[in-house]
Amino acid sequence: MRNRILVVEDEKYNFTLLKYIFEKEGQEIVWAHNGEEAVALFRDEGRFDLILMDIKMPVMNGFEATRLIRESGSDIPVIAVTAYAMPDDRERCLAAGCNDVITKPLQRDAIVSLVSKWITL
Ligand SMILES: [Mg+2]
Fold this sequence. Notes:
By secondary structure, this protein is an alpha/beta fold. The chain has a single domain, classed as Rossmann fold. The protein has helices spanning about 10-25, 35-45, 60-70, 85-95, 110-120; strands at about 5-10, 30, 50-55, 80, 100-105. Helix 3 (about 60-70) links the parallel strand 3 and strand 4 (about 80). Bound molecules: magnesium ion (MG). Magnesium ion (MG) binds next to loops.
């Protein structure tokens, strides 16, 4: 099934990797370069099935962006993709409104299997 996935990521390398992985799965990928851009795209376009949300980004981080998206009343699946690996990072992501968390470095099988828990690939 073709879904539209919003990838929120400030680093081009990470975005390119996610785009490659999910386009191979037949998914449509849209890039937001930071949290502020993600919130604006989400507000103006809305038509997304899932969000992959980096946490550490300039302008607006992933915690804040996820909070704003939740405040708008959306229950879209948001998966935090984070380099943070402290025990309370997962809790912080979930408290901000993320549904799930995956830790970088990204591994194809792990992220595909996590995403497929939330949408039908
Ligand atoms: Mg980042």
